[in-house]
Amino acid sequence: MQRYFIYLSYDGAAYHGWQIQPNGVSVQECLMRALSTLLRRETDVVGAGRTDAGVHASLMVAHFDADSPLNTVLLADKLNRLLPPDIAVHRVRPVRPEAHARFDATSRTYHYYVTTAKTPFLRPYRCRLFRTPDFARMNEAAATLFHYTDFTSFSKLHTDVKTNNCRIMHAAWTQVDDVTWVFTIRADRFLRNMVRAIVGTLLDVGRGKLTIDGFRRIIEQKDRCRAGTSAPAEGLFLADITYPDDIFE
């Protein structure tokens, strides 16, 4: 048995998220169907995480097992021919038999894009802001995230995780062009809805509705009801996932 990592990207607009759902099409389902067709047997795929409905990925990683060694370049090409145009496979890599796309990841990076202008062609990939918030204040608030590990206040309620602790390594807004800003956040793991909840609450800071001390208190209260409204899905991209070198063959 040989295990492989698949590196892929997708436009999440048409999908009910990454994970297989009983009532809607998911990215995982499409990938499993394509792999099963090519390998001529039912093939399970395990992703590095799960993006919500409407969220995009410029990089997602998933693993699967094959009965025998595969030509990875040929497999990637055949997968791209089978998959819909909004899902693309970039690379297939052999890994150690025990390697796990989710549990072996050492960090994950998300980007959240906002624009202060009406942009018809980027509309599906940006959150539109109708006035410019104070990004300097938002960066001050974002810097306080490094002082905490329990992010219950930014987690979707009633999830099945054992802990709400995460280690945030980077969190900052940077300007892309005259009308576009991106929030980049990197951590060892993320909770359900965490990035969108953080962005929504930071925007409250930028609009003057919340002070930086108030932002701190929201984290410390460990209550999702205290935080801001989650930012819309279309601005969010899973952008990078890192692994230790020794899991690759």
Automatic annotation (TrEMBL):
Domain Pseudouridine synthase I TruA alpha/beta: 9-104, 149-244
Gene3D superfamilies: Pseudouridine synthase I, catalytic domain, C-terminal subdomain, Pseudouridine synthase I, catalytic domain, N-terminal subdomain
Binding positions for substrate per the UniProt entry: Y110
GO BP terms in the entry: tRNA pseudouridine synthesis
Reactions catalysed, as given in the entry: uridine(38/39/40) in tRNA = pseudouridine(38/39/40) in tRNA
EC code(s) of this entry: 5.4.99.12
Top EC category: isomerase
Database matches in InterPro entries: PsdUridine_synth_cat_dom_sf (IPR020103), PsdUridine_synth_TruA (IPR001406), PsdUridine_synth_TruA_a/b_dom (IPR020097), PsdUridine_synth_TruA_C (IPR020095), TruA/RsuA/RluB/E/F_N (IPR020094)
Transmembrane segment boundaries: none
GO molecular function: RNA binding; tRNA pseudouridine(38-40) synthase activity
Pfam short name (any one): PseudoU_synth_1
Keywords assigned by UniProt, alphabetized: Isomerase, tRNA processing
Domain of life: Bacteria
Active-site residue numbers: D52 (nucleophile)
UniProt-listed PANTHER family: PSEUDOURIDYLATE SYNTHASE, TRNA PSEUDOURIDINE SYNTHASE-LIKE 1
NCBIfam families attached to this UniProt entry: hisT_truA (TIGR00071)
Family statement drawn from the similarity comment of this UniProt entry: Belongs to the tRNA pseudouridine synthase TruA family.
Annotated function: Formation of pseudouridine at positions 38, 39 and 40 in the anticodon stem and loop of transfer RNAs.
Assembly behavior: Homodimer.
Protein name: tRNA pseudouridine synthase A
Native source organism of the sequence: Candidatus Bacteroides pullicola
